[in-house]
Write a structure and sequence with these properties.
It is a single chain. The chain has about 1350 residues and is α+β, with helices and mostly antiparallel strands. It contains 34 helices and 59 strands. Helix 28 crosses helix 31 and helix 30 packs antiparallel against helix 31.
């Protein structure tokens, strides 16, 4: 034992000499030698206990961490006391402790006598088996009793071998490359279907773990030992023996009636990765006799004098990275007939099964499932996950409904969501994992981040006393012991009981969400298979009945998942209104203030829990997943989204859940059949046959999502055969089919391991000319700046703010977000200087908060009884006198009210829209003149209201005038959002005026100039912005700003209107306006009220053109030469076309809508099949400059507008005609073509830098006319509407021409910047979008009388 203190690491091996150690000092790789020193579990801050568990992995960890040999006999004083639970806090800091202790006895690395480290054996390259990355099974582990002698674990008061419990051992580990026999000195074999070498000992004991004949191959593979610690998941493997026998392993006197039983486990690594084990336990016949060692029992395969027959348990465990419990149960069940026939061939049967299962891939999320047939067994199907962000569901998740009531299920759900310590009890260990996995499925998208041990063995029951939150499962026989532990929630499955400690109070979900959930579950649970099938005829075959049952169960499980998802989405949907995406935080206090009193405790507790944090982070990062989709469907419809946001106390009414939730129906599943396993000699041949079958499927599949699953599977098979380039080719094609299943991490790993030759192959094909994978991987969370605390701003400090620093702080304090507004505020506070001092900033922010607190004093009854749902209070006056008596004046964004003092009676003084004039006045009284304010109505029958505001008169006049001016301009411009901006100005003005009362504020002596700086709409009204031309006013319907609530206006690069299906009531079928806003963003607005529904970020580059294809696709062309295809129902960009070499400048459909033509600036034109997304043809209009702007399809020809000419070409690319500007002089930069339009067989061409329209005959190509457009410095867009040509100019005007006569009929003054986009809405409206200086969308009538 001279090597006792040596530090060994994973992968240490021994040679043949090491195997001759004496019996008392043998070192087993399973780590269970009787002579092995006892190693207590080392817990930082704990003292060793008498029953400390031996944890070999801890020893390995400390050996590695220490530069000196680790002494196994450490003094006890080096271990300190274990920390006690404090204050009921529930965190996961002891999670690693549970994982470490639950590993039990980890195999200790074998040690060579010489202390030398030998290299591991390697298989020859010629027989290296292929390794499938997405294999159905990761590892197979066989656990049982050591044939050479069972190690006694505990004694009862009896000498009988049947009253003792025994230590189970790891008998074999089978990976995709090899089979390892730890008890045979780490003996290695390749995983093949060849029979395993066997020999029998002279005494008749079983020789299953001795090495076979010394053939050349066998000698090469077994001369050196292989330790389990060399496996990547050895920690979880070492944990299996005790978990496979949670109530200890016993030898039976007689064959059990239930010889085969299943168990399901979930193993968690130190890194937090979970593996799912499906275990089959059965009993083998042996003969046993007590050995000379009192702690060891010998086993024999044959009867020998003095031995008795016994039945010894063996467990086969299949470990998978995904929870395919039911599928792997079917696979293990296929072994049972062979085991019943000849159990001596157990290892041969297992090896053959594993060889086949390692060839089975798992499908990606979608509608393609795989089927395979094991020899002499029925078909087995591998189902895909429902969504890329969800694990597969392969368990009967309805089991809790068979054991618990609906109220009890909600009670358990609340316990999980509130991070309680929960213990599930059952008389059958096999029920624990499925039931607990079902509850973890119910809480999705929330994830349980703490200790999770679905099956807790008897020796680890002390875990239940740990000061942490956990989910554990125990046998019901321990119930009396568990009840002695404080602070637990117990769920007894068989007795249908949920009990909890007296000090536990569970939060309650909002009642509206509970009621809706119960209604849905009542509908779902009525679909139990036996109930649903009573009215249907039987299937003709057992296989048909089995498939129908499976499909029905999948639909039933989908309904259950949808019901729980709907419960969570209903409970948390209103958080959307309180997300601050810029600061990446939730406005918790504001949200709590908006909820009914009875709901606040629930949300307050949820906000403080760790389980809520990842969910909130996903929402703030705008994660587009299955939760986001259902949340949008159940959110109440906002009737008017263009009103001001609440700056005081905006009334937030509780909106009941309207309408019923539409359950997701299972789409038709496509089955891909794997070839028969026994027809192929090895994995390479099998995978190549699968690839050949997938080639045909990819070629003939017309559905992109189905083709994407085939490409994914083929890529994984190519990768298993070491064809990295072919695999990357398949993964790259996912960009044009379904990016949601793209294996990003795997691709990044592969790209980093490419050889120079492979990298050259990829570069030669230009597959990664634009680094899509790098874009996905490089997104790092941005540093979030923190607002300056007011406590840090000392009044006499010398701190100052520049304009940029001031803008940042105002935005972080959520006072304002618009940069132009903040710049005006900066000028107002600094009195024209370039620096703002900290004192003035402090006064301003305090004044802002003071005004906010005053508004909160308005009684809630006022909001409920008098205000609209979207109306907010802006200002409340001091106590004043008016004709209505003594009281207070209240200004909202829509009206002025008078609150009578003492009685809290409100009367409406006037609506802002009804104001005719606002006047300063002096009221004469017996005490003299009192400053007052007169509000004159535009209705002569309404008397003028006069309020004696005294010292507040001037401020109220300024504020009310700004609001009124904004309202007047909004009515004239037909832009309701202007009222929102005016309301924001009122609040800023009020804070500026209040802060000027401090003499040390920079603007205190120049208050009038400061106020005038912020009276933006008052000034615009004086300048005549409320007066617009009659033609413009009559044809303009509505305006709105797509960049509302953003720091700056963005250019509306492109627009598309989708009509939807008005016969349906679901949100997906409503009309929508899609606006490309630059920086890769597309905003989706409701087509009826133009409220923002969704914002999609699909690229870091500008989106410059949009095209609606069919009923469910939107194509977006970008500056980075990509075309993103968006699912219009789910708002997801799942497909990417990357065939263009330059900026995608335009996209159009053919006249019959069957194909799409896309063009890029370099003259490249590609024709696409819109159904299959397959490229039909491609050509390039060669040009020395990048000048191709617009393409049109007319008369089976393409009309391509370059800056210098218009080329008429065939669909194949043959140039038929070149049309140029009609002049004999050399073209100057002032005359360049920008856009074209074809109407009535006339080609209209607009000049970019000159106000001219050039018209040709589209058949003869004869020049018809050159039209000079007055007051125009360039035509930006052309559109044909009802026989009229809408010529949009760079000055924001729209010139309307008669298409027949080519005469100017009207001029519409629509924007303050160039019109950059135009689209039609059902031939009823025309929509125009402007550049960033204006940034607005205008909606015009398409049909009107021309004068």
């Amino acid at each position: 034992m001279e090597n006792r203190n040596r530090g060994w690491s994973d992968g240490d091996v021994i040679d043949d000499e090491s195997l001759s150690l004496s019996k008392n000092h043998a070192v087993s790789s399973a780590g269970n030698s009787p002579s092995k020193p006892k190693l207590s579990l080392y817990i930082p801050g704990s003292a060793p206990s008498e029953d400390s568990t031996d944890v070999g992995v801890s020893r390995v960890r400390y050996w590695r961490a220490s530069s000196s040999p680790y002494d196994l006999e450490q003094p006890a004083q080096r271990l300190i006391k274990r920390p006690q639970q404090q204050g009921g806090g529930r965190t996961g800091k002891h999670q690693n402790l549970f994982r470490m202790k639950s590993m039990g006895r980890v195999p200790t690395p074998a040690v060579a006598a010489s202390g030398r480290k030998k290299s591991l054996p390697a298989f020859p390259t010629a027989i290296q088996p292929p390794k499938l990355k997405n294999s159905l099974v990761d590892t197979c582990v066989v656990v049982g009793m050591e044939d050479s002698g069972m190690k006694v674990k505990s004694h009862r008061n009896s000498s009988s071998i049947f009253s003792k419990s025994y230590d189970p051992q790891i008998l074999a580990v089978m990976t995709q490359e090899r089979v390892i026999f730890p008890l045979a000195g780490g003996h290695l074999e390749p995983l093949t279907a060849s029979p395993m070498p066997q020999s029998a000992n002279h005494d008749g004991s079983a020789g299953l773990f001795t090495r076979g004949p010394a053939t050349s191959t066998n000698r090469r593979l077994s001369m050196k030992a292989f330790t389990l610690s060399s496996l990547p998941d050895f920690e979880m493997i070492a944990n299996l023996p005790q978990l496979c026998f949670p109530s200890d392993a016993y030898v039976l006197r007689e064959e059990p009636q239930e010889r085969f039983k299943f168990l399901y486990l979930v193993l968690t690594s130190i890194e937090g990765t979970r593996s799912y084990a499906t275990c089959l336990t059965f009993y083998r016949p042996y003969y046993s006799a007590k050995s000379s060692d009192s702690d060891s029992i010998a086993l024999f395969r044959k009867h020998i004098q003095g031995t008795v027959q016994c039945w010894v348990p063996v467990t086969i465990c299949l470990l998978s990275a995904q929870p395919y419990f039911s599928t792997l149960k079917s696979c293990l069940s296929s072994l049972i007939p062979g085991l019943e026939a000849n159990v001596d061939l157990m290892f041969e049967q297992i090896k053959t099964l594993m060889l086949y299962l390692y060839w089975v891939p798992t499908p990606p999320s979608g509608n393609v499932c795989l089927s395979f047939v094991l020899p002499k067994w029925t078909e087995i199907r591998v189902v895909p996950p429902d969504h890329p962000h969800k694990p597969v569901v392969d368990i009967p998740i309805h089991l809790p409904f068979l054991c618990l009531t609906l109220d009890q299920i909600l009670q358990v759900l609340a316990a999980i969501m509130s991070q309680q310590s929960i213990v599930f009890l059952s008389n059958d260990y096999a029920l624990l994992t499925p039931c607990m996995e079902a509850f973890l499925t119910y809480i999705q998208p929330f994830k349980w981040p703490f200790v999770y041990v679905p099956v807790l063995c008897t020796s680890l029951l002390d875990f239940l006393e740990a000061p942490s939150c956990f989910l554990m499962g125990c046998h019901s026989s321990h119930k009396s012991r568990i009840q002695q532990v404080d602070g637990l929630v117990m769920v007894d499955i068989e007795s249908s009981q949920v009990t909890m400690a007296a000090n536990i109070t569970l939060p309650t979900f909002p009642q509206a969400a509970i009621n809706s959930f119960k209604q849905q579950m009542l509908s779902a649970t009525s679909k139990y298979y036996d109930l649903a099938m009573m009215s249907l005829p039987d299937e003709g075959t057992l296989e048909g009945d089995r498939q129908r049952r499976q499909h029905h169960q999948r639909q039933f499980h989908r309904d259950i998942q949808d019901s729980f998802l709907h419960l969570l989405a209903t409970s948390f949907r209103d958080l959307q209104d309180y997300y601050s995406f810029e600061q990446k935080r939730l406005k918790k206090e504001e949200f709590l203030a908006s909820r009914p009193e009875e709901e606040r405790d629930f949300y307050r507790e949820m906000f403080s829990l760790d389980i809520f944090k990842p969910f909130l982070e996903d929402r703030l990062n705008k994660k587009n997943d299955y939760y986001t989709h259902i949340e949008k469907r159940i959110r109440p419809v906002i009737q008017n989204s263009t009103v001001p946001t609440d700056q005081g106390r905006l009334r937030r009414s509780s909106v009941s859940i309207q309408g019923s939730h539409k359950r997701g129906q299972l789409e038709q599943t496509t089955v891909f059949e794997l070839p028969p396993f026994q027809d192929f000699p090895d994995g390479h041949a099998y995978f190549q046959n699968c690839v050949d079958r997938l080639n045909l499927k990819v070629e003939h599949s017309g559905v992109p999502s189905i083709r994407a699953s085939y490409l994914y599977l083929r890529g994984m098979l190519h990768l298993a055969c070491s064809k990295t380039v072919d695999a990357l080719n398949d993964f790259h094609r996912l960009f044009s089919t379904d990016m949601s299943i793209l294996p990003v991490e795997l691709i990044a790993e592969l790209l980093g391991k490419l050889t120079d030759n492979e990298a050259n192959q990829l570069r030669g094909k230009e597959l990664y000319k634009h680094p899509e994978i790098e874009e996905l991987m490089r997104k790092q969370p941005r540093h979030r700046p923190v607002p300056i605390s007011l406590d840090d701003l000392i009044p006499d400090s010398n701190a100052t703010f520049t304009l940029m620093e001031f803008i940042k702080q105002i935005q972080l304090h959520e006072i304002a977000i618009d940069v132009a507004v903040i710049e005006r505020l900066f000028k107002a506070l600094t009195a024209g200087q370039n620096i703002l001092d900290a004192v003035t900033f402090l006064h301003f922010v305090n004044a802002w908060k003071e005004a906010d607190e005053e508004v909160k004093l308005v009684p809630l009854s006022f909001y409920e009884d008098h205000l609209d749902n979207t109306e907010s209070v802006l200002k409340v006056s001091r106590l004043i006198k008016s004709a209505h008596g003594t009281g207070r004046l209240v200004m909202t964004d829509k009206r002025v009210f008078f609150l009578t003092g003492g009685s809290n009676q409100y009367c409406e003084v006037i609506r802002i829209a009804a104001i005719f004039n606002i006047e300063k006045s002096d009221y004469l009284s017996i005490l003299g003149t009192v400053p007052s304010l007169r509000i004159v109505s535009n209705d002569r029958n309404v008397p003028t209201f006069e309020a004696n505001l005294k010292s507040e008169r001037n401020s109220w006049y300024t504020l009310l005038t700004e609001l009124w001016s904004g309202k007047v301009i909004a009515a004239a411009q037909k832009d309701p959002q202007i009222v929102q901006q005016a309301a924001r100005n009122v609040l800023l003005l009020d804070a500026v005026i209040r802060s000027a009362e401090n003499v040390d504020a920079m603007h205190s002596k120049q208050l009038e100039a400061a106020a005038a700086m912020l009276c933006h709409f008052t000034r615009l009204k004086v300048e005549g912005m409320d007066q617009i031309p009659v033609d413009t006013s009559s044809e303009l319907v509505h305006k709105f700003n797509p960049s509302s609530n953003e720091p700056q206006c963005s250019t509306v690069e492109a627009m598309v209107y989708t009509a939807g299906n008005r016969s349906q009531s679901f949100e997906e079928d409503t009309p929508k306006l899609w606006c490309a806003m630059g920086a890769g963003r597309i905003k989706v607005f409701d087509g009826s009220n133009f409220g923002l529904e969704e914002e999609i970020t699909i690229s870091e580059e500008r989106i410059c053109c949009l095209l609606c294809v069919g009923n469910d696709q939107l194509w977006a062309g970008s500056f980075n030469a990509k075309i993103h295809i968006i699912d219009t129902l789910r708002f997801q960009a799942k497909i990417l076309l990357v065939d263009h070499q330059d900026i995608v400048s335009d996209m159009i459909l053919s006249e019959d809508k069957s194909v799409a033509f896309t063009a890029s600036m370099n003259g490249q034109v590609i024709t696409w099949n819109v159904e299959t997304l397959v490229k039909i043809r491609e050509f390039c209009l060669y040009s020395s400059k990048k000048t191709l702007n617009v393409i049109k399809h007319h008369d089976s020809k393409l009309w391509c507008c370059n800056k210098y000419d218009v080329k008429v070409v065939t669909e194949e690319g043959t140039v038929l005609k070149v049309l140029q500007y009609p002049t004999d002089q050399v073209l100057t930069s002032a005359i360049l073509f920008q856009t074209i339009l074809i109407i009535n067989n006339q080609l209209w061409c607009g000049c970019n830098r000159h106000g001219q329209l050039v018209c040709w005959d589209a058949e003869t190509f004869d020049l018809l006319e050159v039209i000079d457009v007055e007051n125009c410095n360039g035509i930006s867009k052309l559109e044909a509407v009802h026989g009229r040509v809408w010529a949009c100019s760079k000055r924001g005007k729209i010139h309307l021409f008669d298409a027949e006569t080519r005469k100017l009929k009207k001029v519409l003054d629509g924007h303050e910047d160039a019109i950059r986009s135009i689209c039609l809405a059902e031939e009823r409206y025309v929509m125009t979008g402007a550049g960033s200086s204006d940034g607005k969308v205008a909606i015009w009538r398409a049909k009107f009388v021309m004068t």
